[in-house]
């Protein structure tokens, strides 16, 4: 049998190459079709995840609203809805990556291997999240309370996963990390139903202190917002350089504190004026020396000679 000619070999090789190319093209077409289908499904999963996160957050809010303890507590509602939304989005993103061919076991392994590095890099962020959860459990304040954190006072507007947002009297937005709030002293100014007003008045040393106390307690007792239990109280709380300090205490509801304090301060001053009780200005009295008083220090002229020597 004779050997095949070079032309026959070339034709056979060409046919084989064409067959390989056709198989490769078919394989690529199949892969492209599968990828297009997977990509379309992944996009649909992502869109569904976005809507599902909003729906789940709303469902969590409605479910917690039915609980008596959380019904009127926007702090818990806001925090819980954020947590539910983030969890749903994370689950949806894992499903998207799995649909695109990424093995979820690999993702979990990578996350596990990188957890230490991420934890070290995000110590502050993670501590804020943990502090937010502790604040939600301990409940030192809620949305709407007026608090003081390390000298920063304001009304609580929102408790997030990472920060606590306040609004002060000038409507300034104040953002404090949750870790700082949990680690600092928190004074909940409106955490109780009632609050005490304390106003310091000063009167002259020659005035009738009993009359002064009666005038101030009468002013507080006549105010419509002042509570009768505990009753208003006034007493001497200091002997100053130029006056006697008399302090007035009156209890009111938390929401009436600011205006009632201003009213009592004005009414107290006017009542003291009407009763001819002096509110002295700071002053100093000059006491002259007697002519026969010998000064404690005597100066001797330089160069004088003692006659006894």
Q: What are the SSEs and their pairings?
A:
Blueprint: H1 6-65, H2 74-99, H3 104-121, H4 123-138, E1 146-149, E2 152-159, E3 163-167, E4 173-177, H5 178-183, E5 186-188, E6 194-203, H6 209-222, E7 233-239, E8 244-253, H7 257-274
Antiparallel strand pairs: 1-2, 1-5, 2-3, 3-4, 6-8, 7-8
Helix pairs in contact: 1-2, 6-7
How would you describe this protein?
The protein is α+β, with helices and mostly antiparallel strands and 309 residues long. Helix content is 51%, strand content 17%. The chain contains seven helices and eight strands, in the order ααααββββαββαββα. The strands form two sheets. Strands 4-3-2-1-5 form a five-stranded antiparallel β-sheet. It has a three-stranded antiparallel β-sheet with strand order 6-8-7, with helices on one face. Strand 3 and strand 4 (173-177) form a beta hairpin.
Number-wise, the strands total 8
Uncertain runs are 301-309
Average of pLDDT: 80
Q: How much of the sequence is in beta strands?
A: 15-25%
Helical residue percent band: 40-55%
Most strands sheet: 5 strands, antiparallel
* Rg, alpha carbons: 41 Å
Going by helix content, strand content and strand pairing, the class is alpha+beta
How do the strands of the widest beta sheet line up side by side? 4-3-2-1-5
The first-to-last residue Cα distance is: 159 Å
TL;DR of this structure?
This protein has 309 residues and is an alpha+beta fold.
């Amino acid at each position: 049998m004779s050997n095949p000619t070079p032309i026959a070999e070339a034709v056979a090789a060409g046919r084989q190459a064409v067959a390989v190319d056709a198989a490769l093209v078919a394989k690529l077409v199949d892969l492209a079709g599968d990828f297009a289908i997977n990509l379309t499904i992944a996009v649909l999963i992502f869109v569904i995840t976005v809507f599902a996160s909003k729906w789940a957050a709303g469902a969590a809010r409605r479910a917690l609203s039915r609980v008596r303890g959380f019904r009127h507590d926007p702090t818990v509602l806001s925090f819980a809805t954020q947590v539910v939304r983030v969890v749903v989005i994370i689950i949806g993103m894992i499903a998207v990556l799995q649909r695109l061919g990424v093995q979820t076991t690999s993702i979990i392994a990578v996350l596990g291997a990188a957890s230490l590095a991420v934890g070290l890099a995000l110590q502050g962020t993670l501590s804020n999240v943990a502090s937010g959860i502790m604040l939600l459990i301990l409940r030192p304040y809620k949305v709407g309370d007026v608090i003081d954190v390390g000298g920063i006072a304001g009304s609580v507007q929102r408790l997030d996963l990472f920060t606590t947002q306040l609004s002060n009297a000038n409507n300034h937005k104040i953002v404090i990390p949750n870790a700082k709030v949990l680690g600092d002293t928190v004074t909940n100014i409106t955490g109780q139903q009632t609050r005490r007003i304390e106003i310091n008045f000063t009167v002259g040393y020659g005035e009738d202190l009993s009359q002064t106390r009666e005038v101030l307690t009468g002013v507080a007792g006549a105010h419509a917002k002042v509570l009768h239990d505990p009753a208003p109280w006034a007493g001497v709380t200091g002997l100053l350089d130029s006056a006697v300090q008399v302090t007035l205490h009156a209890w009111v509801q938390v929401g009436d504190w600011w205006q009632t304090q201003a009213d009592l301060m004005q009414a107290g001053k006017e009542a003291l004026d009407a009763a001819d009780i002096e509110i002295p200005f700071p002053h100093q009295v000059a006491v002259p020396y007697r002519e026969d008083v010998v000064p404690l220090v005597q100066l001797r002229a330089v160069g004088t000679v003692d006659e006894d020597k």
